Amino acid sequence: MMRQMFNEVASNKLKSVLLICVFILVIGALGAAIGIAYGNAYFGLAISVIFSLSYSLIMFFSGDRMLLGISSAKPVTKQEHPYLYHTLEGLAIAGDIPVPKAYVIDDTAMNAFATGRDPKHASITVTTGLLKALNRHELEGVVAHEMSHVKNYDIRFMMMTAVLVGVVVLLGDFLLRTFVWGGSRHKSNNSRSSGQLQVILIVAGIALAILAPLIGELIKLAISRRREFTADASAAVLTRYPPGLAAALKKIANDPDPLIDHANRSTAHLFISTPFREKRGFVMGLFSTHPPIEERIKRLEEM
User: Which of 61, 124, 139, 192 is the most exposed place for a label (fewest CB within 10 A)?
Assistant: First the structure.
């Protein structure tokens, strides 16, 4: 198990690079399609690459602060929440990583999330509802789960995924609007062959604009669900007490009011459990940010 956890860090770093490569190809295709619509594929490709790089750099260095602001998370001191700090410090030592900063959301819902681009710039946020409802072992399990996201570089991986999906959505929407409202501005001769080619390009561009964001979102959600299982297993290794996290997840699953006031679809994948009311069904499962909590509890209880 320990060897598997260590390998997960290296795997996440490699997959981060591969993921970027895949999304760059999709972004390049969208940019080229936009360029074709305006008469110059290379110009569209260049603009999309510049936009993507700029947006990615901004989110990489300031995305965590934006997410904390969106979630209305407030920094807390050791004097305000001493046990939360002691738990963070103890698990950070056990995990051999810097102690993450502590944030709290004033909300009755029981939830938590981690963010930051790497372990040196990480933070862990919990709700006041979670702090009130969980005992020591349960809180350690939840914090260990979020600490595992930090240690395994999940937070960087998922932040990059979300950023790249956002770029694909923006470019796809722009391309779709270009074809629907503006039409192709590419001017060539009036031959039948050029007209047929233009029709093919328009159809392909519209299909790409519609499908690319959907596929990108499905990839992001599938990655997010798998990362939750990994973080659960890592937390069990970190605390040496799987029942603690299992008991915490049971309480979270039975929370009568799981809705978090300041959560939204762009931040939902960060939380230990979905901050919205779960909907059952195969199709809804494809668009879920988390695996079924019952399956997570079962795996922990079998450890």
Answer: 192
